[in-house]
Automatic annotation (TrEMBL):
Pfam families: Fer4_7. One of its GO terms (molecular function) is metal ion binding. This is 4Fe-4S ferredoxin-type domain-containing protein. SUPFAM superfamilies: 4Fe-4S ferredoxins. Residues 1-25, 26-56 form the 4Fe-4S ferredoxin-type domain. The lineage of its organism: Archaea, Methanobacteriati, Thermoplasmatota, Thermoplasmata, Methanomassiliicoccales. InterPro entries: 4Fe4S_Fe-S-bd, 4Fe4S_Fe_S_CS, PSI_iron-sulfur_center. Keywords: 4Fe-4S, Iron, Iron-sulfur, Metal-binding.
Length: 57
């Protein structure tokens, strides 16, 4: 996953949408752990389009 930190408002919508608990919000940006299965829920729920799946636009 690619996070565009300049767009991210740190609202946490993506964190709550992840069924794998793979997203963490820290002071600087979002982080994804090894549990991420690239389901794309976080991409769809982000209200500002800050998350992008690698290789897809």
């Amino acid at each position: 996953m690619i996070v565009h930190i300049e767009k991210c408002h740190k609202c946490g919508a993506c964190v709550g949408s992840c069924p794998q608990n793979a997203i963490y919000l820290n002071d600087v940006m979002l982080e994804f752990n090894e549990n991420c299965n690239r389901c794309g829920r976080c991409v769809k729920i982000c209200p500002v389009g800050a998350i992008e799946m690698e290789g897809k636009k």
